[in-house]
């Protein structure tokens, strides 16, 4: 009798563990999908020249670090991005996250990008790589917390 109780309890615990692991995998997949969606919105906002939509993807304490420029905090981004978008229109942009790792309320995404834009009246193609740290917000959404990119040329 005791053996049956033990085996029954072991089966329940095993089934619960499988269920909890499955829920964890589903949550991780949801987080990864949400982060991939950020990159889709990021590229779409850049092509549309929609600085407001692009800035909405950033945490209030976000910092962008670009090659050849000093690090810019959210206040600097709020002031500079609308001017930058107007000065360098982008006709296409692709962001390819090659790695997304989520750990609790933090995640990072690493990948490549390419874009066609106009700089000082001259059309140019750029490509490069990025590493971004994302932070889960109080509402469960993800926002860009730190972003670093550099071009391949």
Explain this structure to me?
The chain has helices at 2-48, 51-55, 74-87; strands at residues 58-66, 72-73, 90-103, 106-119, 122-136, 142-151. It is of the alpha+beta class and 153 residues long. The chain has a single domain, classed as Nuclear Transport Factor 2, Chain: A (Roll), CATH 3.10.450.50. It has a six-stranded mixed β-sheet with strand order 2-1-6-5-4-3, covered by helices on one side. A hairpin with a 2-residue loop joins strand 4 and strand 5.
How many E-type strands? 6
Topology pattern, helix = H, strand = E: HHEEHEEEE
Write the CATH fold name: Nuclear Transport Factor 2, Chain: A
The share of residues in extended strands comes to 35-45%
Work out the count of structural domains.
1
Could you tell me the mean pLDDT? 88
Largest sheet geometry: 6 strands, mixed
